Amino acid sequence: MDKPTNFETQYFSNSKGKWIPVSDMCDEHIRRAFKKILKTDWYAQHFTDNAEYKNERLENLKNLTEVIRNIAKSNYDDIYDKIIDMENKLNGY
């Protein structure tokens, strides 16, 4: 049951015993195939559990942006203070 290597979406037909292009299927067969997929264990496992989906990579990126934001904010405050000090010196304060 090797899946074809071309880029067209394929569906494995149990009755024909081979992969067939979805574009060759009539609307009725596509609807039946979709219903079949909805009944699979994989679909049930991924879409019926109550656990919140967590994307570890996205969480890591959020944490990294928070760290960068804090670094930028602290550096901005330092730069701002230095500019104020320079302006005060130029103005004779």
What does this structure look like?
The protein is mostly helical and 93 residues long. The protein has two domains: 10-47, no CATH class; 54-93. The chain is built from three helices and two strands, in the order E-E-H-H-H. The chain starts with 9 loop residues before the first strand and ends with a helix.
Sequence-ordered SSE layout with sheet pairings:
Layout: E1 10-13, E2 18-21, H1 27-38, H2 41-47, H3 56-90
- Rg, nearest Å: 29 Å
What is the total tally of β strands?
Answer: 2
Mean pLDDT level: 77
Strand content: 5-15%
The separation of the N and C termini measures 82 Å
Shape descriptor reads rod-shaped
Poorly predicted runs are none
Give the count of helical stretches.
3
Biggest sheet statistics: 2 strands, antiparallel
- The domain count comes to 2
**Secondary-structure element string:** EEHHH
- Helical proportion, percent range: 55-70%
In the sheet with the most strands, the strands line up as 1-2
Search tags:
2 domains, rod-shaped, 93 residues, 58% helix, two-stranded antiparallel sheet
Summarize the structure.
The chain is mostly helical. It has two domains: 10-47, no CATH class; 54-93. It contains three helices and two strands; from the N terminus they run E-E-H-H-H.
